[in-house]
Amino acid sequence: GEVFSVPAKEGVTLNLTATPGAREKDAVWSPDGEKIACISDRDGEYQLYVQDADRVTKPKQLTHFKTGYRHTLRWSPDSKRIAFTDQTLTLYYVDVNGGQPVRVDKADFENVDVSVDLKPIYDFAWSPDSRYLAYSKMDSTLVNKLYVYSLDEKRVRCVSEGLFNDFHPVFTKDGQHLLFISNRRFDPTYGDFEWEMVYKKMAGIYALTLRKDGAPLLPPRNDREVESKEAKKSQKQKVRVSIDFDGLTSRIESLPVKRGNYRYLAVSDDHLFYLNRDEGDFNRFEFRSHLPMDLYAFSFKDRQEELVLKGIDEYKLSADGSHIAYRKGKKIGIIKSSVRDAKKKYLDLSHLQMWMVPKAEWRQIFNEAWRIERDFYYEPNMHGIDWNAVREKYGQLVEKATCRQDLRFIIGEMIGELNTSHTYVFGGDFKRKAERVNVGLLAADYSVDKTSNRYRFAKIYSVPDWLKPNVPPLFGPGKNVQPGDYLLRVNGKEVTADRNIYSYFLGLANRKVLLTVNRKPSLKGAREIVVTPVSNEYQYRYLDWVEHNRRVVEKASHGLIGYLHLPDTYNRSARIFPKYYYSQTKKKGIIVDGRFNGGGLDPDIFLQRLNKKPLSYWTRRYSHDYMTPWLGNNAHLVCLTNRQAGSGGDELPYLFRKKKMGLVIGTRSWGGLVGISMFYPLIDGGGITAPDYRIYDEHGRWVVENEGVTPDIVIDNKPDEMARGYDAQLMKAVEVLMEQIKKDPRPWPKHQPFPVDEIKE
């Protein structure tokens, strides 16, 4: 948590803070290079501090908040003010010479699942004369719009049309234009299964001319035009920004860059810098990380884009525009901003040293965890709990902690007082960690033939995972290993049952291995095969379970009922859904198995597809008629759930019932729908969550949390029945659907006779 000043090449490295019991973060240089500002909790709450950059001095405290979390510091170009945002989504600025923070604006809407330092208002930018702040925020239309705040007038104005999502604004150095990114380049991508469209690479870069009499950022080219002496002189004069807000949205132009995924603009006198990446998920929900990205420079003069640096996570342009600091993972580098297609060279940070006082650090971690719940928990009254008393109660135990694992346990017990789902604490500074033993796995179960003291293959898991694509080690042509076969040798070494079977595969994961197998416990007539054991066989066992269930349902229903399993409400289900749904849309019934569903995001993305019912039918001359939607279904549906289904796994049966899609069968679900939009990092690499949103229904009633979803038909699986392969919940689903199909078979409609047109004379 310390702040260091590190030279780019040669010079003195300084630890400017040296506070082992506090956390400093978000350190930034002042544009004049004389000061460094940071956020620190040295007084027990996060406050802004500023101190000299070239020597260790006592920092000056700029704020005195009683509570709250603050992030994203940005100096004004004149080095007199610092803007920042807090956990209430409010933007402030404070004068470094003293005074109370000034409230600029507050966002009243935000996207779900956005990390803590990207919550609004986070993309604010100062004008070059330090008199305006530009930023984006979402309003009640759920569209992200640009706003400009005037420090002189203390007034906010919206400068967006309101039709598109605009963000990441930045003023040009001459104060004549406001550049920004906007998602308005719509070129749909159509699904290969269904008539559905999604939009990717929507972003372009745009410029607003701030004055009515101002010139465009990129005026029409004219080879005869010569820049006047007055224009050159005005560029050297001190900038004073003037904005004519009337008609501003009509003074817009598009920069000549292809549609992309642009992020984080920065400007020098003659170039615009930005990050871009051709592929990735660039929504504001952070479903999947899109890092790293490539850094580009756009020349205002040549109107051409050039690659600066490939594959970085973050960059900052120096105040004078001459250098760029960049980060890739935990590595930091610096290059001149004029360099193109640079090779990454990182600063040597190995000599950075700080004193660590474990007890002091543990107190800081404990107090910060307590504050994070206080500041971000969805209910400000903390469910009626005296949260100060909770800190006092568990804080005493911190003094008795002997290791970081103790601290994690104490924090876990503390946040458990909230009696709320999704309260997690994890990680930490673990110094001793044993290396994992590499063990090869064949995706098989074994039995022991006591007579011969040999291992036999009891079951072989043989369902491929075509996504990777990966196939089980014993699957495929040339293997021909069957249940009951004996495993006699591994790489020529005799295999006997007096040793653990896995001991023969130490160090053999993901390597070619020679197996000797036979139908009898003898080397006579044995054959040799080459396989590649895997390090993890979970996916093969899971796919075998799913395929087994599908076949059981297929057999029990005489082919009338389909089956699919949703393991979560995120990527795993998204990957398995096409395999099992699109091949079964013409079944009379479908079992949607949501048992053991680990959650993730909103499950409606799956239910929308499952709930597509026929809207119309179309006749064909030479082939079977079809319906709209093409891959909808007219099947009776049921949903299975159990106590091991939670979070999104709770919402799945809840929404299934809400949409009146069918009956829910099984046992009551977990009951956890106070969600988390972020994982908050702690000082030593650990983390904590603060549940910050809760579900309620259209009548305003709290639902699901701590009660789960009770099925329409409650039935549990008995261990003895499961042991012999009987799944009572699954078979009840088959029984229910067969009854519904019998009562309501939903046959394909028969159209009227084809019309015959009569010709009247």
TrEMBL record:
It holds the Pfam family Peptidase_S41. It comes from Caldithrix abyssi. GO terms for biological process: proteolysis. This is Peptidase S41. The keyword Protease applies. It is found in: Cytoplasm. Keywords: Cytoplasm, Hydrolase, Protease, Serine protease. Its main location: cytoplasm. The lineage of its organism: Bacteria, Pseudomonadati, Calditrichota, Calditrichia, Calditrichales. Residues 524-716 form the Tail specific protease domain.
